[in-house]
C-alpha cells in the first residue's frame, strides 16, 4: 500500500497512568484520618489508569445493557444482559471494598479511605459505580430494621461479586438499589401512588410503579409505598427466600444521555413481597439515610469526573504542538488549564472534607454530624454544577479530536450533568440546605466554625465570610435566593479549605477569582499575574511503565 503521509503531532490516549498520584487527594486522605489506607488507594489508582481497565470501560459503554422480559418460550424472566466488561468492572469495585465494607470497619477513617479509593477508581468508568454507591448507602437506612440488617449487612459488606439471580441469603455478596420516584411525582415522593398491604405474616404486598430504578439487577431495593400508617420504606428482594422471582416487572430500560453502561429501568410491582424498614408513616425519614450517602457519592463522582477530564486535557495539550511549541506552553492554554486545576482541586478538597465529616459523624461526633448535614448537600449541589462546565472546557482543549467517540471526552461530557439531576436536582438540594439551617440549630454554628479555621488568611475569604454570615443570620431566607446562598456557602467553604491546605499559588488564585471578582465568565480568565505553570503542574498525569 502506498503511504501518502506520516502521522505525527497526534496525542496518544492517556493510558497506563496513575490517577492516585494526586497530591491534593493524598494529603486529604492523611488529614481526614485515613493515611493508613494510602497503599490501597495507590493500588486502586494503578488499576484504574491501566490500559486494560480503560478498555473494559470502553467495551461496557459500547455494548449497552439489554433487557430480556421473557425467555424463548414466553416465560417472564425480567433479566438484563450486560457485557462481560461490566461484570469485570463490578468485580474489581466490589473487591476494593467500595460497597458496604466501610460500615463494618472499625478503624477511624474507614469511610474516608473508601471515598478516596472510589474517587480514583471511579475515574476509569462511572456507570458501574451507581449500584456500588447505592449498596454502600443502603446500610444506615437498613439499620432501622435490626433483624433485616443483621441478616443482610454482612453480605452487603462482602468483597465478593456474585451476579447470579438467587435468593439473597444464599449468595456470597449482595448489591442494593433504590426505588423512590414515580411518573407523577419525581422529587415529590409524597405524591407516590404505590400501595403496601399487610400480608398477615409480617410482610407486605406492594403494588405500583416506579419511574426510575437504577441497576434493576440488584438483589435488594429500598422502596417507598403507602402502608395503612402512611408513606413507608420497605426492603424488597428481587428473589424470594424460596428461590422464586418477586413480582417485580421490568417494563423498559431508559435510553439515557450518558451513564450508558448502567441499566436504569421503569418497573411495576404486582403484589411484590416487601418487608417494613423503620416505622409505618416514616418512610422518607428512613430512606433519607440512604439519600445522604448517595449524595456524598454523587459529589465524589462529580469531582472524579472533573479530575479525569482535567488529566486528559493536560495530557493532550502536553503532546500536541502548534506554532512551534506544545499547547500546554501556550500562555492562553496554560491559563485555561490552570483555571480548571483550581476548580478540580477545590472539588477534591471539599468532597474529601465531607467524607471526613461523615466518618466522624458515624462515630458519634455531634459537631461533625451537624457540619455534614449541610456540607454534603453543598458539595452535591456545587460540585455537580461545576462538573459539566469543566468537562466542556476540557473537551475544547482537544479540539475536533475531543468531539470524536474514539476519545474518552464524549463519555466524560455526557456523564457530567448526571450528578445535578440524580439524588435531588439543584433546587431540591439548595432548598434542603436552607431547611436544615432553619430547623436544625447546630448546623449554622458548625458551618461557620469551619470557615473560621481560615480566618485572617485571605482578605477575599474574610470579606466573603462576613457577607455570608450576615446573610445566613437574616431572619428570613427567601426561596428564590436559595441557589445564590448555597453557591456562596460552597465557594467560601472551598476557599477556606484551599487556604489551609493547598499551596499559595492555588489558594490565592482561587480566592481572588471566585470570591474577589478578579475573574471573567469562563475558564482561562484568571489574572495574568497568577503562577499558572505551578498550578498546572498539580494536574500533570503520572505515567506508569507496564
Automatic annotation (TrEMBL):
InterPro entries: Acyl-CoA_dehydrogenase-like, Acyl-CoA_DH_CS, Acyl-CoA_Oxase/DH_mid-dom, AcylCo_DH-like_C, AcylCo_DH/oxidase_C, AcylCoA_DH/oxidase_NM_dom_sf, AidB_N. SUPFAM superfamilies: Acyl-CoA dehydrogenase C-terminal domain-like, Acyl-CoA dehydrogenase NM domain-like. The keyword Transit peptide does not apply. Residues 281-437 form the Acyl-CoA dehydrogenase/oxidase C-terminal domain. GO terms for molecular function: acyl-CoA dehydrogenase activity. Transmembrane segments: none annotated. Residues 9-163 form the Adaptive response protein AidB N-terminal domain. Residues 178-271 form the Acyl-CoA oxidase/dehydrogenase middle domain. It holds the Pfam family Acyl-CoA_dh_M. Keywords: FAD, Flavoprotein, Oxidoreductase. Its cofactor is FAD. Belongs to the acyl-CoA dehydrogenase family. PANTHER family: ACYL-COA DEHYDROGENASE, ACYL-COA DEHYDROGENASE AIDB-RELATED. This is DNA alkylation response protein.
